[in-house]
Amino acid sequence: MIWFFAIVDVIGRRDLGWFTELVWLFGIIFVPLLGTFIYFLVRPAIPAVRENGPPVAGMLYQLITCTKRAIRLTQSTSRNAHAS
Questions:
Q1: Which residue segment(s) compose the domain that 29 sits in?
Q2: Could you tell me if 54 and 32 are in contact, meaning their C-beta atoms sit under 8 angstroms apart?
Q3: Alpha-carbon torsion angle 14, 62, 9, 55, nearest 10
């Protein structure tokens, strides 16, 4: 589970360059335990304010936002299916 969050965190970061993201992904995917552990120990701090968005409270904020969107989408799709 933490391995998945590390991958999502690396991909979702806009402050890391493409080469840095690539190196982190390589380490996290090919050396999962050690790569994930090292990433969470030395990763750069999350910027206080994201461009074109609300203040970032970390991975939990992103996870909750994505979950809410998925729930809304699922509910609207099921309502449309029942209405037919």
A1: 2-83
A2: no
A3: 40
Q: Which amino acid is at 71?
A: I
Distance, CA of 9 to chain centre: 4
Q: For residues 83 and 15, what is the distance between their CA atoms, to the nearest angstrom?
A: 44
The number of domains in the chain is 1
Considering the entire predicted model, what is its pTM? 0.51
Q: Residues 15-37: pLDDT tens digits?
A: 788 898 899 899 999 998 898 88
CA distance 72 to 56: 22
Phi then psi dihedrals of residue 37, to 5 deg: -60, -50
Distance CA 3, CA 9 (A): 10
